[in-house]
Specification:
It contains eight helices and five strands, in the order αβααβαβαβαβαα. The chain is α/β, with parallel strands linked by helices. The longest helix is centred in the first third of the chain and has 17 residues. Helix content is about 35%, strand content about 10%. The mean pLDDT is about 85. The protein has a five-stranded parallel sheet with strand order 1-2-3-4-5.
Length: about 220
């Protein structure tokens, strides 16, 4: 989807070759610098949902090799804008024991680099919107601010912050469907339900606002 709501044809993704990695790393660095220069307070590196951090990187021989590419991206961005302005988002969807160990290693390395926050998505339970409480090892391995997301409602978010399971809770779909979510939480008001059929621009053929800015405010 283009900035003005038009659908654009995208090129097919391809595996990054070793000779391409330095350019990709520099692209992250440049994007971070552009964001800060444009007035953003911080940047978040997306390592969740099958992106760089949980890929095989530049080799499959041991944990250090597998997370090498991810650490090069983080190091380049931290050098450019400072660790106090960098967060990293990870997930543990359907993680095997091997993937769990890899991600735990990555989280500990992020802590060593002074990254501002680690933002992790809770694994889904039976495909439903329920909080799994499986992020505690990552919370304990990270020395900075720890953010949990995925399946939280108002009460669940209050509970996990109160217990120290997370420092903050991030909301996605609830914010999309409720543009005044903080106010609704404060009042204990009824929430709008998300319309999944309009996610990712599915309704933009008729109106670019559909699914994004057409949800009603609380009256």
């Amino acid at each position: 989807m283009s900035f003005d709501g038009r659908r654009e044809e995208l090129s097919s993704p391809r595996r990054v070759a070793v000779e391409d990695t330095s350019g990709v790393v520099d692209g992250f660095r440049c994007a971070a610098r552009n964001a800060i220069d444009a007035g953003f307070n911080s940047v978040e590196i997306l390592g969740a949902n099958g992106y760089f951090v949980n890929s095989d990187g530049q080799g499959a021989n041991g944990i250090e090799s597998r997370c090498r590419f991810a650490m090069e991206v983080v190091d380049a961005v931290v050098r450019e804008v400072g660790g106090h302005r960098v967060g990293v988002r990870l997930d543990q969807f359907d993680a095997t024991a091997d993937e769990h160990a890899l991600e735990l290693h990555v989280v500990s390395r992020l802590s060593e680099r002074g990254v501002l926050y680690c933002h992790m998505i809770e694994p889904r339970v039976d495909g439903r919107r329920r909080v799994s409480r499986l992020l505690l090892p990552f919370r304990e391995a990270f020395g900075g601010t720890f953010i949990a997301s995925g399946g939280y409602g108002r009460e669940e978010g209050i509970a996990v912050v109160g217990e120290g399971y997370a420092d903050l809770v991030a909301y996605g779909r609830l914010v999309l469907a409720n543009p005044d979510l903080p106010g609704r939480f404060e009042l204990g008001a009824r929430l709008n339900e998300c319309d999944r059929a309009t996610f990712y621009g599915a309704g933009a053929d008729t109106d670019p606002a559909v699914g994004y800015t057409d949800y009603p405010f609380f009256d």
